[in-house]
Design a protein that fits this description.
single chain; 8 helices; disordered N terminus; transmembrane; six-stranded antiparallel beta barrel; 32% strand; serine-type endopeptidase activity; alpha+beta; membrane; Trypsin-like peptidase domain-containing protein
Length: 373
């Protein structure tokens, strides 16, 4: 991914340094939205009045009884049904430096969230607000900056509702999904949309010079700062992704970025594997090709710079100067694309790589067995 592509990507909910932050208060933001609504309503009213004829019968909604709103909560697959099922298992997370969201994954208080949400609270403290409005202290368990995944634990709780993981490999483009979280601190916010794309390699910079790379589920469900760490669920209420990043048109003006319909979530299968490692060992490892790669400036693909002697790439016959253009049926167009694709596979899995020379010639296929855990 080029610098130009990564510049517009940011971690949703990640705070900017205080001295550089220029922020519109929530009250002001809402006021601006209301002004826009009033102006639009006025224009529409004028247009309708201009079209009316003195002989035309006027229908006035103020003089008619209100229609009964149909509640679809009991209808399986409705957004209302999903919201009712999911909201009790979603929390808001606050630290002195950040705000975000999280999914309860154990009844005794384990919460899945983003590294960039939880890490600031490792020493300064974490506060969690449940859907019922109660607040609790929480402890930092572990996190992994490279994948932007973290686990925290709410203190002194039991019998909490939990979210069930879904299988993110079965997601399809166009499938309806629901995002839940606390954008701009507005807890228990529900938005809906579709899966816009799969397997998007997305890298975002974090504080301290760290960066994370995820093989993302792209969605047009509205995701804003504060949604980070919250769940993306299917229409059965299963957690299929963790909302982590948004694309922004902002070019460093200092204004808070907002949704433009390009949100990115960590696939649930990947998040589950990393979270399990964090809980059990305190750290996370990923399958590796055991080679260093660079963006291929001569064309598409990932350029092999070095291979580790005896590693997966070496055993597969890869050499410095080779260019990987496919992993299985998936096209590889950058170094990040290859890294993300490898991470999405399992430890010890054998994958097929399509390889050319640096000029794009002499294509061949090799098999590589990824590193074990």
């Amino acid at each position: 991914m080029s610098d130009g592509q990564t510049a517009g990507l940011m971690a949703a909910g990640q705070p900017e340094p205080r001295r550089e932050r220029k922020k519109v208060g929530l009250g002001t933001a809402l006021a601006l939205m209301l002004v826009g609504s009033i102006v639009t309503g006025s224009v529409v009213g004028v247009t309708v009045s201009a079209m009316q004829d003195s002989s035309t019968n006027v229908s006035n909604s103020l003089e008619q009884p209100s229609a009964q709103t149909v509640n679809q909560v009991d209808q399986p697959g409705s957004v209302e049904n999903v919201a009712q099922a999911v909201l009790p298992a979603v929390v808001s997370i606050r630290t002195p430096q950040a705000e975000g969201s999280g999914s309860i994954i154990s009844s005794d208080g384990l919460v899945l969230t983003n590294h960039h949400v939880a890490a600031p609270g490792e020493r300064s403290g974490l506060q969690v607000t449940l859907n019922d409005g109660s607040t609790h202290r929480a402890d930092f368990v572990a996190s992994d900056a490279a994948t932007d995944i973290a686990v925290i634990k709410i203190r002194n709780v039991s019998d909490l509702p939990t979210l069930q993981f879904g299988d993110s490999t079965t997601l399809s483009v166009g499938q309806q999904v629901v995002a839940v979280g606390a954008p701009l601190g507005l807890s228990s916010t529900v938005t809906s949309g579709i899966v816009s794309a799969m397997n998007r390699p997305v890298r975002a910079s974090q504080e301290g010079g760290e960066s994370s790379l995820i093989d993302a589920v792209q969605t047009d469900a509205a995701i804003n700062p504060g949604n980070s760490g919250g769940p993306l669920v299917d229409m059965q209420g299963h957690l299929v992704g963790m909302n982590s990043m948004i694309a922004s048109l902002s070019q460093g003006s200092g204004e808070e970025a907002g949704s433009i319909g390009l949100g990115f979530a960590i696939p649930s299968n990947f998040a589950k594997r990393v979270a399990d490692q964090l809980v059990n060992t305190g750290k996370a490892e990923q399958p590796k090709l055991e080679a260093t790669v660079l963006f291929n400036q001569e064309g598409n693909g990932a350029l092999i710079r070095d291979v580790i002697p005896g590693g997966a790439a070496d055993k597969a016959g890869l050499k410095p100067g080779d260019v990987v253009t496919k992993l299985g049926d998936r096209r590889i167009d950058s170094a990040d694309s290859l890294i993300a694709a490898v991470r999405s596979h399992e430890f010890g899995e054998t994958v097929q790589l399509t390889v050319t020379d640096s000029q794009g010639n002499n294509e061949r296929t090799v098999e590589a067995t990824l590193s074990s855990e």
